[in-house]
Structures are given as structure tokens and as C-alpha cells.
Records
---
Amino acid sequence: MAHGSWEEATRISTDLGDAVLGDSLDYMEDLAPESVDLIVTSPPFGLVRKKDYGNEDAEDYVDWFDAFGKQFSRILKPRGSLVIDIGGAWIKGAPTRSLYHFRLLIMLCDRHGFNLAQEFYWWNPSKLPTPAEWVNIRRIRVKDAVNSVYWLSPTPWPKATNRRVLQPYSKSMLSLLRTGYRAKKRPSGHDISTKFSRDNGASIPPNLIAVAHTESNAYYQRYCKKHGIRPHPARFPAELPEYFIRMLTDEDDLVLDPFGGSCVTGEVCERLNRRWVCVEIVEEYLKGAKGRFERPPTRRIPRDPDRAENYYRVPRPDILWDGSPTEPLAADGGRKRPAPATKAPEKRASGGRGTGRLGLETD
Ligand SMILES: C[S@@+](CC[C@H](N)C(=O)[O-])C[C@H]1O[C@@H](n2cnc3c(N)ncnc32)[C@H](O)[C@@H]1O
């Protein structure tokens, strides 16, 4: 499967897959139609402020992506899936958001015939509050801590099962299962039948994936450091591709990551026994990725569902509001920059920065 120019320092080839140095558009053109089971990827985001790993300008993003969409729809099997993790972007100099990721989704469906199987949100509880100007200084926006993850498919029936991504029952569900549920109609009109009190062993997850980006990537980072390689600046946590690879593919299926970066997808496929190809255009990123394949795949140590650190806690939105009167809002919507604060720091409410008991960072 090797393609493009090769050096020993970047050659990654295992029994299950290859990392390819080159432009994934060229690579995909050589692939047979309907040959790939899953494309899971995190493309360069359409950040308005370009970063050093080749982000496209938000304005031109959809046009740039069009050629990729065409190839994705050609090479995917009819029961295959395309999963795209994409971050939002702010309009330069304004406290407003770019629509580029919505446009991308609509373009893929309208122009390339994809179906939106489901949209997911990856919540990164350790995301820093940016842009500081809107979030910390003017206090007119909140932290942007979710990425959209679009699950698309060439047909409305991609192969999939939620049975592989189950979660432990909540305490309230466990008590419901113990005490039983009286079948009745909810105020919403939903008919809650006795089927809801059947113990299936685990619960079906929502479309919110919570993973702090303080990833267990120590080996990769050590490898980069040892070899004087800059680690990839925009890696996704392994749990993200892993979730979709488990839900949407079987062993020996072929998984492609056309924006391979540090080959997290390849490393996950090694663990899960899927065939894989990661294509990456920047040689240095593949030099670092090599470290992921130097030793046999690490076996997953099952997490303990009884340990608090395996959960993130989300406060209810009104948790600190006691109903007392509040300062009026700035009539100009925060347009005038506040004078630098000289007064004593605000008293922190409990639950503020540094609580971090469960690895959460607030502001
Ligand atoms: C957001 S990063 C992906 C990071 C990756 N998921 C990881 O966890 O390491 C996007 C990557 O796409 C690469 N890229 C951009 N255009 C490409 C192209 N046409 N072909 C292959 N790779 C490309 C960039 O160099 C960058 O490393």
C-alpha cells in the first residue's frame, strides 16, 4: 500500500496497516471504488487564524473539502461510514462564530449524497477558555468546549451497533431497576412501558462523548522528545476514533484516516485488529507517529465503573444561582472593553478553578 516518497525515518508498515506520506487526495484516487469500511478523521480545522499544521481559511474551507468529499463517497462501501471530528471557529475580531462546519456538513450531504446518520459532540472538559477576549476579559461568551463529530454514510443503513459502546447504568436507573417502574404516559406524551425496567446490563450512551484531552500518550511524547521531533499539535484522544471503530466496523475491516497526523487512528486499529491506512502530508508528523508502532499494541486495561475518576460531573446550569438580583447587562453587548480590573479578585464560588477532583478544569 506504500505510496509517495519514502524515507526510513517515516516508513510505518505493520501486518495490519501502513502510514503513507503524501496528499490523501492523490492516494484516494488510486483506491478501488467501494473498498473502505470506515473513514474516521479529524481534518485541519477551518480556523480563521491559521495554525502551523496547514489549516485552511474558514471561508475557503468548503471548496477545499469538496474534492475530498467526492473521493470519500466513491471509496466507501455502501454500508460504510464517514466520521469527521471538526472544531468550530470564531470570526476574526468579532464575538461570533463561523458557520463553516455547518456548511461542510450540508455540502457533504447535498453534493456528495451522504446521509447524516447522527451528529455527536465531543466534550473536552479540560479545554481552555478561548478566545480570552470574549470569554475572560469581556465575559460575553462561554468556553467553547465541544467539537462536532459528524457520522455520515453513503446509505441510510451503515453497519453499526450501539451494543459495543454501552455505559454503566446511573444510580437512579439502578434503583429504578430494583424497585420497578410503573408503566405510564409521561407529560411529554411518551409511553413509558414496563420494557424500561428490563435490566440489559448497561445503558445506551447519549451522543455526547466526554474525554479530557489530557491523553495517555506518554509513550508517543517520550518518543518525540528522544528523537527531537515536534509532537503533533492537534491530536485527538484515542478514545474518539476507538469509539467509532468499535461501533461501526468488524475485525479485519479497512479503516482510512486521510488526515492522519500522528496516526492515532492506526494505533487504535492495531489494538482492535482492523486493517488501516493513515495518510499524512507532513513528514515530521510521520516521524513522530513511528513511535506508536515500535512496540506491540498495548492491551486495554478495563476501567473500573465504580471509580469516580472514570466519570465527569456536569453541574446543573442553575447550580450557583440563588435568585438574587443581578447587575444589568451592558447595553452595548460588551463592545466597549472593560478597564483593567484593579479591585481585589472576585470571591470564588465553590466548584471554581482548582476543584479538579475529577480532573475537571473550570476557568
Ligand atoms: C487535525 S490534524 C489530524 C491529527 C490526528 N487526528 C492525530 O490525532 O494526530 C490534520 C492533519 O491533516 C494533515 N493534512 C492536511 N492536508 C492533508 C492532505 N491533503 N493529505 C494528507 N494529510 C493532510 C495535516 O498535516 C495535519 O497533520
---
Amino acid sequence: MSDQALVVFTPSGRRGRFPLGTPLLKAARSLGVDVDSVCGGRGICGRCQILVSEGEFAKHGIVSRADHVTAWSEVEERYKQKRGMKDGRRLSCQTCLGGDVVIDVPPDSQVHKQVVRKRAEVRDIELDPAIRLHYVEVAEPDMHNPTGDLERLKAALEQQWGLVDLETDLRIIQTLQRALRDGDWKVTVAIHRGQVMTAVWPGFVDHAYGLAVDVGSTTIAAHLCDLASGEVIASSGIMNPQIRFGEDLMSRVSYVMMNPGGDAEMTAAVREAINSLTTEVSAEGDIDREMILNATFVGNPIMHHLLLGIDPTELGGAPFALAANSGITVWAAELDLAFHPDARVYVLPCIAGHVGADTAGVMLSEAPHLAEEMTLVVDVGTNAEIVLGNKDKLLACSSPTGPAFEGAQISCGQRAAPGAIERVRIDPETLEPRFKVIGCDLWSDEEGFDEATKTTGVTGICGSGIIEAVAEMYLAGIVSEDGVIDGGLAERCPRIVPEDRTWTFVLYEGRQRIAVTQNDVRQIQLAKAALYAGVKLLLDRAGVEQIDRIRLAGAFGSHIDPMYAMVLGLIPDCDLDAVGSAGNAAGTGAAIALLDTSTRAEIEATVRDIEKIETAVEPKFQEYFVDAMAIPNKSDPFTRLFSAVPRPAGGEAAAQRDAGRSRRRRRRTS
Ligand code: FES
């Protein structure tokens, strides 16, 4: 009988012959099979579980049986009793080869496992976190062979894990002796990106955590992730306390310009908020915040600078110079963040002075740079960040939309909060509106609406509400293509009332009157025209006329109904079913960079290659802006939209103009 046996690992299909008695974990390692381990084969961590497949495997030329490996061991029994293990599973570090076998490595035992994500995503995440844990037994000091504790730890890491040339933080040396003695010379070491010892704990530790944070100008959101499984174990959000220094980004930059030391105040405020958020998610996830060893951050350029303690004044005016636009890795302690004292923080790269690390996060999540389709990604905020392209070329710009989409500068505008109108429908025959408010599932014309909204009331219109209101007013013929509220309809519609020398459309008359004024319509026109003109510049530069896919990102973007955004001409013409929300794509991008470190180099390379367009200096911006003031647009026909949505009666002129334009085009080309 041969003293060697054949082992085939599935699903990788890797195979090799090994001497009988070889532990399966060792065989897997030598074949490069992806099997996890923290304890280094001591039967403690349970990460190395496998299944012995039974039966005749003609494909591999093997008859595999459970008794072709060594019998169930005491170590496995002890582990199963203590931590639990599914029937049929074995610890590969404790199971040795006794004959030919096929070994299945289940997904949860693989280091580079796929992370399961909630919604159908553009890309898969393969787990490859920056932090790996390694349990080691370290030689005790010997008077006859004097070496430092650190050197013996390094020798153990090299011998037991093959880790060489490790760098060490001073804090590791400061805490090492205690940890080694408390752990009876057995410690767990956290290694950052295979290079730097980041933490040492006495005994066996098998979980480390990471935090993915999206620092928005209004809210800060964080996801706490288990770095071993990729699972999000807690998520939470908090208002950005910098709001007290200025509602929007430019007012915060002005605050810095006018108040020496204002940047330091805002830096302290945002860091404090992140620390509170960390306390909250750690409590929710039931972990010690010191177990957070890695964090990733995204944010627009001004949030990015303030988080890092950089004065954002340069971003307040041309040429909008960033202090740094590459990805940045720093110690959490340098940012006063209360994670593990030696935790590392990675801040995603910024793209340009107005296009930040939040857009880099959106790109990681939506992956236009990996797609064939011509994709437009728009993060709608007070400053819209726009990316257009596909795997061949990407362009980016930002456009100053102002705060109208957030409900500011709108007469009855308010933030998205209970009581705010968020959905609007207008009957084109009767011109009678109905609406929904945040916090209530009923439409305003449904029975029980008044009762259901008794506590919240109907308090104003939020961003998505004003978009729908103006778009529905246009579809119902109340607002013309030029954005003028038609006072001629006042006779048949008592909701159209004069105000100064213009007209106002009253949506609701209750404890307070909620109405859309002529000036509100203008503000929305100005905001959407700025955004659309930015998109047009990118389309021009890319030499593209048709967009295959549109993704709306950001808190606001995920609440707008794509159809209404298109009716208004906020986004270009596209098949409606190819337009969708990217959800909180920036935060998802931060989580991707946290869980799969290979994406950090990917996004940095992508960002380096993006062509940046500065809208402020582009001569055609003004022309596009003027055209885009019309609803949906003076020069672009929006044929795909109007093949799905009936054009309003007042829009006949536009339709005729479009027909005329295409006739002229045909004549020119014939
Ligand atoms: S490697 Fe830890 S239990 Fe097998």
C-alpha cells in the first residue's frame, strides 16, 4: 500500500499527493487552498472546518470515504462541546490523511469568502480585510540566550505563520511584556495588511471589527462590520454637528474664513460626533470599541478636509485646490478617534476640488469603471457630484445646485422629517392634488389621513416632495415649459391664487397653508438646470448622446422618483427602468473598501484616470444652463421619457418643435 494519498479540495479543484498522516489544513495550505485559521492549527478557532465528501468521484478518479481520514479527535469533541459545530464537519487542522479523499471547503471556512449583500449589487465583495488575527505561542525568555520579547514574538510569527519583516508600533512594545505574561506566552496579534503589528492581546482572540463611515454634511452614518465574516453587525446615523456652523458646505467654509480657528472647532465637532456614533454602534453590536481596528471614511472634499484637520479655505474658491487627493492611511489616534489606540483609518481618495471621497465611494459601489454600459452616477446634494462613463473612460464634475433640493429657499420647504410632504399627485382634469407625508402611509384623500397625521401635522415640503409637486404641476398643465404658473387656470381651479404679481398653487390648507409659489418653481428650475448643464458638459466631452444607466446616489437621490426627476429635466433622457437609486452608495463604498482592501488600489487608480471637468470655466455651461431652465429642456426632446409618460397638453408646442427639429436634422443629413 502506498504511503501517500491523493486529496482533492473542492470547490477549488486543487489536488495533490501527501504522505499519510498529513493534517488536511497543512495539505490545503501547501496547495494554496483558501482555508481560514486564527489559531494556527491548535483546534481553538474553528475557522478551518471542512467536510469529507463520500462516494465515487469518477471525475477525480477517487473513492472518497469518511474513514479515509483519521477518527474524530478529542480536540474536535472539546471544540464542538464548547463552541458548537455542524454534524459532519471536521477541523481540518486536527484531521489527517489516511487515504484518497475529496474535501469540501464550505464558504464560511474560506478566508476570501464572498460577502453576502442585501440588495442585488453591481459587484461582489470578496473578503480581504486589512486586519488579520494570528494566535502564536512565544518562547519564554532564556538567560543563556538573551533576546527581547519582541524578537521572540517576531520569530514565532515567522515560524508559525510565515510572516516576515513585520513593522512594530511603539505602543506594541510598550504593552507587549504584560500581554505575553498575562497570556502565559500565548498571544493573539493583529497584523495590518500583512506588514504592521497593530495590537497584541493575551490569549486567544478571534474577532476584530471595522467601521465604515460616510461623513455627510447633514448626517454621519456608520456601519460596524465583523472583519472575519464581512457581516454588518450594527448601523447607525447621527446629525453632523457642524450644522451649527453653517447649513451648507460653503457657509461652513465662510465660517472658517471669518473665524480664526473655526476649522479646528468644526474638526473637533465632527470627530466628537463620530466617537458618539462609535459608542452607539459598539453598544448595538455588543462589542468593546477597542476591538475596532480598522475604519474607512468617505465624505465630500470639505468634510474630508475637516475630518483630517485640514483647513478647507482653499476649497472655497478657484482653483479649488485639495490638500491631497490620494487615499490616506493614518492612525485613528491622530484623528482623536476612540477606536483601538493603534487602529488604522483609511480615507478614500478625493476626485477633484468639488468631487470628493464620497463620490469615490459611490464609484466603488456602483462600479461604472467596470461596466460596458454608459453609466451616469449623480449624487444630488447642495453640490451635485456627477460621474459619467464606463470601463473605457470616466469623466467627473460637480455642479452648484444650491440647497433647493433639500427644501431650503423653498417657501414651505423643510428637511425630510415626519409631517413633510414627500409625494404629490395632481389630477390633470380637476387639478386637485393629493399627497403623502413622511410618517404616514395614507394618501391625503384616503380615509383616516387626518387622524393618522394628527401628531405630525402637515408641516412643509421636503426635497422629493417639491420635485414631484413641480413635475406634477407641469404634467397637469399648471406650470408651462418655461416654469410659469398659469394664472389663466385660476378661474377653474381655486387652488391657483394670486400672490404679488405671480401665481401660487395651494397644495394644502390646514393648520398651515402649504403652497408652491412661482419663486419655488424658479428655485427648482435653477437647481435642476445647474445639474443638467453639468451632465451635458460631460456628455459633450465623452462624445456620447445616449446614456444606458442612471444611478441616483445620496440620501436625497435615493428618495426621488426617477420619473419625476426626468420629467423636470433634472437627469437626461433614458429608459425609465434603467434609472434607479444607488441607496447610500457612498457608505456602501466605504464598507467595500473596509472589507476588501484590494479595492483601495483599484479606486485610487480609477480616480487618477478620471478626467475632471471644471464647470465654472466651461464656456458652454451657460448655454446648457439656459436650455435646461425649461421643463424638461428647451433643446433636448426627451423622446424616451415621453414615450412612457403622456406629454402635458401645454407641451404640444414642444412636441411640434421637436418634430420640426428632427425634420430639419433629416433635411441637413439628406
Ligand atoms: S485552525 Fe483553528 S481550529 Fe483549526
---
Amino acid sequence: MCQKLFNRRFLQNLFALALASLLMYLSLQISCPVFSNTCTTYYCKPVVQKSDLLSFQLNRTFVAKSSKVSFSGDNFSQVASSGEMNKLSASPTSSTVITSTSRDLFLSREELLKNISRNLDGLGLFETIDDEEYLKNHSDFFAPRVGVDNYLDHQILIQAEDLCLRDETFLLIAIPSVIGHKEERDAIRRTWLRSSETNAWPRARVKEKVKHVFFFGYKKGSREEDLKNLLAESVFYNDIVMVDFEDSYRNLTLKMLAALRWTGNFCERAEFFLKVDEDTMINVPLMIEFLLHARVAAKSEQFVVGRKHHHEKPEVVRNKDDRWVVGDLEYPFRYYPQYMLGHSYAISRAAVPVIVSTARRIRLVAPEDAFITGIAVKTARIPRLSARSFSMCCVVKYDCDVVWNKKVAMTSLDLLHLEKLWTSVAQQSCDDKIVFLK
Ligand SMILES: *[C@@H]1O[C@H](CO)[C@@H](O)[C@H](O)[C@H]1NC(C)=O
Ligand SMILES: *[C@@H]1O[C@H](CO)[C@@H](O)[C@H](O)[C@H]1NC(C)=O
Ligand SMILES: *[C@@H]1O[C@H](CO)[C@@H](O)[C@H](O)[C@H]1NC(C)=O
Ligand SMILES: *[C@@H]1O[C@H](CO)[C@@H](O)[C@H](O)[C@H]1NC(C)=O
Ligand SMILES: *[C@@H]1O[C@H](CO)[C@@H](O)[C@H](O)[C@H]1NC(C)=O
């Protein structure tokens, strides 16, 4: 999760990112000698055989569907100088030529926005996560333990009354929050979470009913004024649930288990539980299409879907100074089971109560994503699917993929970035798509 700034995992990610950018930069230098003035970091990969090229005269807005695209030099720089970076729409007097191996590499912007379920095709959807070799000999660990009986029935202190009763909820969005983050909550409510309750989305219809809840623990020593404000917020929005356990980073696992338990008790008909971090934006209509696809792909009532951690074997933090340290007693192996990135993941309705009952009988560990989508899900033998359309942590160039309905989630957004991305969604334009190397 990207919020956990400056822990070791974050620094590792940052390093990997820097390395990846360097490699990408180098590969551009190598693969695009001809177009080096106008080539884009995003598209300019293979330079295709001349005889295979198709040319398009452009007077509409196009978005490239794959990396096998290049642009002809002179004409293209004219478009660039018009300031319409991503739009590639030529003025009537110029004729911009885009070359590609196949017409299919392009979708017009209109097409992209019109039929979003089409965008889900060919995105490398749904890789099944198999059992890991290195944990195969430890199946006795991934089983309910005698003598472990975690208390998960904490009392509800603030309730979102009858939230799911009024209509058939399809998607329950659960966002862990803390008292001090009113500004973050308001920003989310104002932007992509508007689709909750209203079913509104810029120029698209949210087909299914969406509800959301911000989840809190109880922070000892909270000022009475802050609690009063939170209560007022709860009365106003009816989207706050506070549960009676100590709210802390190390208790995030308890918080998500409380959210799952609450969903099982008070929103039990919701087809999907979607965990979303406060710094993450969801393309709600696309997410719904995506989950409908996932249900077919999973071939099972119970499943979890997200983006698998980019390290094949996510390592357990043993450094005692680290916020996410996990002791040998809690989890004895060097690596976690493959798990999902924590910024957003979805759990099917049938899997929700199973994860909660499993979590009562195994040792809890603090990193919530590793516990819920790794250890608990593996113990309960719930199938896991990984999909690329959940953006990877911290890669800003994927921004526009949310706008163009190609990614269901985008993370590492601060408030300014969130507002900017939402404006892009609302206006259905996005400037970061093509970056020119000068
Ligand atoms: C470009 O615009 C002209 C006139 O509006 C139209 O006849 C033509 O079909 C368009 N070409 C493409 C590729 O859309
Ligand atoms: C644009 O490119 C085409 C094909 O390469 C060329 O025929 C045409 O003259 C160019 N137009 C301008 C305005 O440079
Ligand atoms: C949208 O695209 C999908 C997949 O290509 C297709 O099956 C469906 O019929 C399309 N829907 C509309 C309304 O065009
Ligand atoms: C699992 O155990 C078997 C037999 O004890 C051993 O031969 C094998 O190497 C072990 N596999 C791993 C991945 O540790
Ligand atoms: C987690 O919550 C439980 C229940 O309130 C509490 O006893 C425990 O101290 C908390 N742990 C941390 C690390 O905050």
C-alpha cells in the first residue's frame, strides 16, 4: 500500500520503479532510433516492418490500444505543437499519419467511451493465482489452529443505519479511514464516490446499485469535539461505521475484518465487497462490468480478485523497527503466499463470511493485504484471480487509463491529483497520455 510511506516495502518499490524507468528509457533509445524526436514513452516500442504498415489519416481522436504503434515524424510534431497532446486530432489542413500493423490497434475515443465492456477484452484479464511451490510442504500451517480463537465481535459504536436495506446493493465499497481524514473523505465523496447512491458517472450509466462505508476503529484519547464531528458526519451522510477496537496501523487487519463482518451482517445481499484505500480512485462503471466478467471467469461462488503483488514471493518484514514487522510466531515463513496489492481488491459475496470465520481460527498478522488476500484466503482455499486492470502501485502514467476506461483502479493519489484525475474523467480528456522526448 502506498500510504505507508517510507517503510521498506515502499522504498523497495521506489527503487524498482526507478530501475524500471531507467530500463524503459534505455529501451526507447534502442528501439526507436528513427522516431527519437517524436516518439512517446508509452507507445514507441517495436518498429514494425514497413510492408506490414497500415496508415490512417486522422481527423478524429484516437487512443492506441497497444504498444505496436508509431508515428510519422513531421506531421506528428505539428499535432504536438497544437497543444492537444493526447488527442492526436489533426486540423483540417494537416494530415497526420499514424502507422500500425493493424487497424485493430486503434479504438476511437467515442468507441472507448461508448462500450466500456469491450475494453475489458484483451487486457490480460484474470490470471489464476496458483499455489506456490515454496509453501506446498507447509499445508498444515494453512489450516485452522487448535487453540486460536480470535475475538472479532467488537461492538458497533457508530452505525450506518439500514444502508443496504432500501434497495438491492450490488457493490459495497469499504474504505478504511481515520478521524482526522475528513478532507480526504469529502474529496472522495465529491469525486468518484458520487456514483454511490446516485448512480451518476460522467456520460456513463452505473448499471448496478453501489453503496459505500468508511470504517473506523476507536482511537483512545480522541478529542470529544472530533468524535462529535464524526457523529455529525455520520448523521449527514450515513456512511460511517465505527467499531470498538483500538484504531492503529497495526490493527488494520482488524479493521478490514470488522468491515467484512459488518458487510456479512448488514449488507449480506451485496454481490461484491470492494476494499478501497483513501488514496485510490475507482472507475465505478468499469469496475461493475469487470466484476460481472470476473464472476463468469471465476467459475466459483467464492473468489477474490485484485492485482497480485508484483513480487512473486512477497517477503515478510522481520526488522523490529519496521511498522509492518511480523514475528515468527505469527507467521514462520520467509515469504507470504502470493497476495493482492492492498489499494483495492474485491471479494465475492459467498467468500465474505468464509474469510471472517477462517480469520477467527488462524494467527492474525498486521499487514492487512497479506493477511486477508494471502494467508486467510489460502487457508480457506478460496480461488484468487489477478487482473492487470487494477493499476500497479505508484505508476502515474496509468492515470489516463482510468479516464479511457482501461483501468478499474488507480492509486497513490494525493488530494490534488485526485481532483485533477476526476476533472479528466468528468471532461473525458486526459493530457498525460503521450509524453514527448525532446
Ligand atoms: C474525416 O473527415 C471527413 C470530413 O468530415 C470525412 O469525410 C472522413 O470520412 C473522415 N475520415 C476519417 C478517417 O474519419
Ligand atoms: C504528412 O505526411 C504525409 C505522408 O508522409 C505527406 O505526404 C504529407 O505531405 C505531410 N504533410 C505535411 C503538411 O507535412
Ligand atoms: C460491447 O462490446 C462487447 C464485447 O466486444 C460486445 O459483446 C457487446 O455486444 C457490445 N455492446 C454494445 C452495446 O455494443
Ligand atoms: C517438500 O518435502 C519433500 C519431502 O520431504 C522434499 O523432497 C521437497 O524438496 C520439499 N519441497 C520444498 C519446496 O521444500
Ligand atoms: C488492536 O485492538 C485491540 C482491541 O481493541 C487492542 O487490544 C490492541 O491493543 C490493538 N493493537 C494495536 C497494535 O493497536
---
Amino acid sequence: MKTILILEDNEDRVAMFRKAVAALGDGFELKVWWDAPSICAECQEYFPTAALISLDHDLNPMPGTTADPGTGVDVARFLGDFMPVCPVLIHSSNIDRVYSMQNELRFAGWMVDRVGPLGTDWIETSWLKRVREILAEHSNTWKAELLPDHPARVERMKLSLDGLAIGDALGEMLSYRADTAPRRLAEDDLPAGPWFHTDDTEMAISIACVLKSHGRIYQDALAKRFARRFERDPERGYGKMTRIQMSEIIAGARWTDTAANAFGGQGSMGNGGAMRVAPLGAFFADDPVRCAAEARASSLVTHTHPEGVAGTIAVAVAASVAWQLRKTPAPDHAQRFFDEVLRFTPESLVQRGILLASRTPRETPSREAARVLGNGSLVTAPDTVPFCIWMAAHHAADFVGALGRTIQAGGDCDTNAAIVGGIVALGAGREGIPAEWLKSKEAMQIG
Ligand SMILES: [Mg+2]
């Protein structure tokens, strides 16, 4: 089956589109949306079969509704976040806005053309003629490998992402008086929401979007998401090297080059791969081998140094193990957690640090543990990940306690708490996260 997706608010035109699509022959089905929010919410499920998307710009609200119908530019911007799916034809007479739509899509790599709605029979003549030509030259280019339990994976991933975002925001806000964090979290003595999250969550959202759309880490799509989110909203506390890499990608560089060239060709061993990856561990929680491979792929888009990669794998596997062990009684939990993470983490300083963490008693005060294991002050993976794994191992389902003790240790508080929050949320479950905190986190759209 091939689908033609149309955004059009005029009933007469929709009737003519139906006729025209019928004239194309049996292989084609038509799906129509009347406003921008609806097409953005629903069109993804049609990506695998889409042969063509045809978009209007100016939209009137449906009779009896007051909701904003949005415009074709909203849809072009939404589509531009994805890898190209199929050709797009713009059928609007609003020339300036047609160019705005065309610009959005072309810079995002989509094939796009336009047809002017002139006269009364343009749909059955010029539109249909152009559609036939386009369909002869272009086909669907969407790549997705969704497993049968995809919706359950996405739900699990969202739980981890919520934990990550809350940890990120709280770590950022409480870092200036880190020693008070356990008490403030326990007493819910916190700033009013919504809580602004930082780069950790921004990049994790991109990972979640790519997994939701493609069912695997498609590196081109991930680099594109990272760069587009950065371009729209750069003031999220991104590290210097990430800012350089994102700016270069926006200017047209390949992510393979920008990642390999970081730090004079050594590649980055920063904690940026690890800070964003827990939701990926949730998505592949059933399969640690696949989880480690996908985590590696996600790291390489920005962090190619073996230590950066090892830290990313360790955190992703930790998240998957947190999910698997969520019903395991406490005494046995930490040791099994460490064993699994160590088994899949490549030999590295990160791995050695995790081994040391596994021998560091649970009762060790946070700051003392941080002195031994690191707390991200150096913003490297070996200085960040072992401490976070230690904390997550000993707080299987204690989300509030884990974040309090993590932030208390100081260092890169938002990143540490993002990592720990993204892992421990999977052991604690949604019911283990204070409901008020879930409401206070900044809104996130996983498109
Ligand atoms: Mg941050």
C-alpha cells in the first residue's frame, strides 16, 4: 500500500483530491488532515508507506472549534526534524509562506516542489500531472525497524527520560548549595516549576525521538536531531566542544568528521555520551548485547574516544539492568547490578572505576565516595560514570534518596543527577517518583 498524505482545510478541495488520487490507480490511499497539530500528531505512523505529502499553508479553524489550526510552516518545521520520508508538494497561493516551507524542508534534505492553485480544476490538472511526474522519479526513503513490543519500549524509555529530566533540572538548581540537597529533596523544599532542564535532557530527547521513529540508533537522524535542537535553543548549558560540533553540523559538516576531529583528533572522552543515554538502556532493556551496541552507536555521533564510549555503554547497560532487576530484593541487588554493568563495559578507566565502585561500601558518605570515584568535576566519562553507577546500584528504587545523595557530592551536579535519575527511575517506577516533580518538569515532546 502507498499513502498520499494531505494537509487541506477546504472541503471542496478535499473532494477533488479524493478524485485525483483515485485516478492514480489502486495502489494509492489518501489520508487527509485539516489542521497542523493533527497532522503532526498522527502522520508518523504513515511514514513507512508515504509516497507523497501535499501541504497547504493557510488553514482556517474547523466550524465550531476555537483551537488554533496552525499553518503549513508548522508542519514543514515538524517534518524537517526527521530524515526525508518521501517527496513533498506544496499547494498554496501564499507565495512567501510557500518559500518559508520550502526553505525549512530543503535545508532538512527533503525533496520539495510546489504547484500553484490556479483556476478551478488545478487539482485534476496541474497537481495530478506533477504528482505523476514526482511519483515516477522519487520513492519512499524511510528506514524503520520497529519491534512488535515497540509501544512498551517507548513507555519504558519515557519513564527513564522523565527521571533523567528531573535529575538534570534538580541537579542544576541545587548545585549552588549541594550539601543541602538531601534535606531539600526529602522535604520537597524546592523552587516552583516548570523546571528548566539543560543540555543533558535536550540531547536525551533527541535519542528518544530517534528510537521512537526508527526503533534503533540511526546515526544520521540522531546527528540531525541534536543539531536542530541546538540550533533552535542553544542556551542549555552545552559544553564547549559540543557547541563547536553542533555549529559545524549546522554549517554542513558531516557528524563523522566533527566527532572524529574533536580534541585534535583524539575524540571526546567527555561525559556527554553517558549523560543522555539512560533512555536508550530502557528501550533495549531486554537485550544487553544490543543495548551496548546501540549505546556505542549513539556515543560515536559526538564522543569517539574509547573512554567516552565506555562511559556511554556503562550507563545504558545500567539502565537496562535497573529495569531487569526492579523486583530483586535489596541484599542481592547491588552486586548483580555491578556484575552486569562490568560484564558489558569495555576495558577502560571507566570500567576500572566501576570495579572500584563495586568495592566501595554503600554507607560511604557521598563526598567521600566522590573523592575516590570522581564527581564529574573534570567532565570526563571516567570521572563521572563510576560514581553514578555506584549511586544507582545502591538506590534500586529510592529515586528521591538517590538524587539527594548524588547532588550532595557536588561536581557536575546536573549531569550526575541526570544519569542517576535516568537509571533509578526504571527501578522505582513512575509511582516511585513524587507526582509533584513529574508535574514540575519542563514539558517534553517526543516526536
Ligand atoms: Mg547540563
